[in-house]
Amino acid sequence: MIAEETLVKELKQRDTQAKAFEVLISTYKERLYWHIRRIVLDHDDADDVLQNTFIKVYRNIEKFKGDSKLYSWMYRIATNEALTFLKTKSRKLGVSSDEFIERKANTLEADVYFEGDAIQLLLQQAIARLPEKQKLVFNMKYFEELKYDEISEILDTSVGALKASYHLAVKKIESFLENN
Asked: Which of 19, 72, 158, 173 is deepest in the core (most CB within 10 A)?
């Protein structure tokens, strides 16, 4: 695996950019896909958002200053792209983002990814019903096993606020699972 500093340098140079971008995609594609998928819930939508994320990364790599890790920077872009996608889709349907996601959560049973895994399905439905911030924090902490410091850097939120969001999310998920 190529060192991050080297990769960033190669991404910024015309003669090495194409190859470096291939490395970037192969290195981060799956992690970013699952992060996006947990937000938008649908495979095709996640693919679209992932593609938009990589396009934005490509177009804006010159703006990456190295103040954070490359993955943290891309993760923030992916998060913003996924949330923008949800807002756009929900606006087209004339509903709130939360209502749109709840509708999506109710259709998860037909998704091959969740087929036959009732517990996973229930968990995803519970997560989908969380407010946006709690959902993001829960997914980052629980599924991606990020530390609060990393989440704080990505979401630009204090560690204390993140801990509170995570705790509330866990309580709401537990309540949903107990009642379903």
From this structure: 173
Q: Give the C-alpha separation, 109 to 104, whole Å.
A: 10
Query: Is there a contact between 49 and 85 (Cβ–Cβ < 8 Å)?
Result: yes
Tens-binned pLDDT, residue by residue, of the chain (180 aa) = 578 889 999 999 999 999 999 999 999 999 999 999 988 888 899 999 999 999 999 999 999 988 888 998 999 999 999 999 988 988 887 877 777 777 776 666 555 555 556 777 788 888 888 988 999 999 999 988 999 999 998 888 999 999 999 999 999 999 999 998
Give Cβ neighbours of residue 64 (< 8 Å, ≥ 6 apart). 8, 70, 73
Cβ-proximal residues to 132 (8 Å cutoff; 6+ apart), any chain:
83, 97, 98
Task: Name 42's Cβ contacts closer than 8 Å, sequence gap at least 6.
Answer: 104, 111
Which CATH number applies to 1-106: 3.40.120.10, 1.10.1740.10, 1.10.8.420, 3.40.50.300?
A: 1.10.1740.10
Question: What tokens does 172 get?
Answer: 């709401």
